[in-house]
Amino acid sequence: MSKKIIILSLILLTFTHFAFAQNADVFKKDYIKSTMLKAAKWQLNNPKHPTYDWTNGAFYAGVFAAYETTKSKELLDSMMSNFDKINWSPGRRFDHADDIVITQTYIDLYRLKKDKRFIQPSIDAIKRIGVDESPEVKKHGIIWWWCDALFMAPPTLAQLAKDTKDKKYLEMNDKFFQETYDRLYDKEEKLFARDASFLINEKGEGKREANGKKIFWSRGNGWVMGGLVRLLEELPRDYPKRNFYLQIYKEMSEKIVSLQQADGLWRASLLDPDSFPGGEASGSGFYAYALVWGINNKILDKKKYLPSVKKAWIGLNSLVTNDGKVGWTQPIGADPRKNFDAESWEVYGAGAFLLAGSEVIKLKL
What we know:
mainly alpha, two-stranded antiparallel ribbon
């Protein structure tokens, strides 16, 4: 063997050991906590939308998860201060799921502080559903007409049911969730269309990707899976409809793992990854969160799903900059987009990363 080959082999071996060491580090508890704090603080210092906005609903769900993981008083104080400034209000639309997603974090903080003013404005808004005429139902036929709504609203209603002891919230969720499932869930692909405009009709006509496949948006399905695990966390174990939600979760988990790319991440379009180079942070973060939760709760087979989860967490960490910004996050939209890169960020990208970290740290490797 020549001297040059020996030197190159040593360099490669050194690099490989370094890469393995770095990957191992991302599973250490201290690393996870420090990275979560870094990401949470960067995003808190770089606000982008009104506090009650749907984007922040996902972000603050992650911030609260980061608080539970790290017990950082700074994170808790930030949430309390920011919500006090808007009087713990949801958005203005009583029947739009986007406008109540922030309530999930209000309820989490209510459970800590036992202050009813944290949740009363949201209860007052939700009470109007089924009483006042709904613009969403009038326009779309169903209230949760887009798949993202399954992250926004179901966990909120289940939380309220648990804390108020009022089963009407679960009945409301069952009805609306079933409507969305019946309209948007593709039983062959085990994925949700973003909304009815992406459905293929009986003649095979409709929107398709460049490779001819149906369009299934990564972030949209990520919202669904994230919402499912948050819903399942709240539902009573003996709740009659629980198995319905559990079955959807298991079906989607198996499908999603099969669509993971070599870098551990998922592309903006699930069935046409070649057209969308670069892993997308928000969808990937929600998938990692949902899959790890399944392992931790002994719902998903650890042997089968752990390799996917480990690749996903390593991939997600590669998207976080030194100062804590979660890059490669697709901007606001309603379908797969190509106009994002390493510098692209949105608050829900950070939220998804924080939620994933809050479950990864519980893994028994």
